[in-house]
Description:
By secondary structure, chain A is mostly beta strands. Chain A contains 7 helices and 27 strands. Chain A has a 7-stranded mixed sheet with strand order 21-20-15-16-23-17-22, with no helix packed on it. A 6-stranded mixed barrel of chain A has the order 2-3-9-4-7-6. Chain A starts with 6 loop residues before the first helix and ends with a strand. Chain B is of the alpha+beta class. Chain B contains 3 helices and 7 strands; from the N terminus they run αββββααβββ. At the A-B interface, α1, β5, α4, β8 and α5 of A face α1, α2, α3, β5 and β6 of B.
Amino acid sequence: MKRLLSDRSLLAVLIAASVALTACGGGGGGGGETSDSPPVNHVAPARPASAPSAASPDTAADAPRTPSVPSGNEPGSGTGISGNDQNPAGKNDGDKHDGNKTDDKPPPTPVAVNSVPIVIDNGVGRVVNMPYISVTFCVPGTQAESQCATVDHMLLDTGSVGVRVMSTALGVALASNLPAQTGATNDSAGNAPLAECATFASGYTWGAIRRADISMGGETANAIPIQLLGDNANPTTPSECVARGGAAMNTVEALGANGIVGIGHLASDYPDAADRVLSPLYYYCPTSSSCTPARVPHDKQTANPIAAFATDNNGTIVRLPTLPPLGRASVTGELIFGIGTRANNALPSWPTFLAVSDRGAFTSSYKDRSMTSIIDSGSNALFFPDATLPVLAGWYAPAVAQNLGATMMSNTGNVQSTIAFSIANAQNLFGLGYAAHDNLGAPASGMFIWGLPFFYGRDVYTALSGVQAGTQMGPYVAF
Amino acid sequence: MKSIRIAAALALLSPVVCHATLGAAPSAGTHTPQPALRAAASVATSSPSYTVHESTTTDGVTIREYATPSNVVFAVTWQGPTRPDMRALLGRYFPNFVAAGQRVARGTGPMIARDGELQIESFGHPGVFAGRAYVPRLVPVDVKVEALQ
């Protein structure tokens, strides 16, 4: 993609697309499956999964639906619900902490200034394994109630960096009071507001960059750049943003959350964008309808709130309880700020340290195959290739739960850790209507993604890049 | 959707052959790569029932296009720091990709979905993306798509 997006290159993109449409014939209309449901609140079977060729139209990463196959065999609710506390040893690796026997009760109110509760529930729609926290947004420098809003169900994402929030969740008045972030390096006037196109696995977010004070628990990041989603400041999404991103995730319904709290390893979301124009990514927008691809200094990019805290700013711990084999309707856990900075965030005596890239990448080996791997709270299952496991509707669905294992390999040193996990029949689990399962899996090509199931029953430490966190320098993931 | 309509309108004015897209000939053949797909390295390997054309985009994404003996791309895969230009890669199936993404909420997580004729699988997070898309109808009978990486 051209670095300097002019009208000409925009046109080139459009022509490229049109070329395909022209010469390759036919419209790409979606067929019969495009309008079957609203994005979130859909629990009914999408369609009968009849012919094998039409199998798996539904989704792994999708929010679960009532199992659609086989239709005569409604799973779940008849047998399992009252028994879901049996066999609490759902996972059999030995290195979990075990302090969460009361995980079906509300946790004690956090007393620590450096923590905030995590909830995994269906509070904003029928989703599975989406961890949420609450965040308070204020106009920078103010704490007046009228200048602040606390937004719940913000998706906690160790796989991305930066706070992104729906303007509707903030309220129009507050959203409009947040000052615009300006200062693109290639903006000669220097005063044009910035906007961003952020790409995620299933879509993109588009919206203006603003400044806000971000508070979580008792800690505050002052006047950091955040992305405001769904506002009208820049109504036209750049064509190349759609070309890479696909579907827009600028509404609560489309995202499945009121926003995103990205707490990955970096302090700003795209350090490379300070040196060169990445497209599609940052833009400066002198008017609401004219946005130009931008270079943006680190301190003006969408920021990791952890890195901007005054203290406890070297990383986080995600702490979630162990789950029974059938999962739980909802779960509460804890996000703790800082690593080795207080009594409540020390590393364990013998942690597994995985040295990872700034983007969290390392290598996992599964059944003699090594592949790129990430540990990512924003991915709702374990995604890995295994042609021997049956798949239904895009999810692994073995008749009997399979006990499997894969080996994580640190990017440096000889650290290896073999992780045991279980993969159950996803369609049966979805019949329960629960929000939390530690044994969901789906086929992936070319990657091993340790999504939220990995986090249950563990303390997962995410150390920021280039800073000391306990006995080691980040970036690392420890558990 | 507006931009898609614009593209469709432009299509009527554009008498050019198609580029490297799903359902068309691969980019590493006789066609000129588009900017998004400009190859830093380009390798074609063969197996009995399909050919693989590998290229690397200017932003470091490795793209493999799997083509039938009659030179129709039936599957594409990508892996790299960002997602490639999916409109260029998927061609007429791009709207299916968008529709699949819109159907349910996935947060920042992966998508494995079928929409119309397109099977789409998109994984990863910023800086680490991978995925695969194919048209089952076009896949040769002796090819196992699970093996395509």
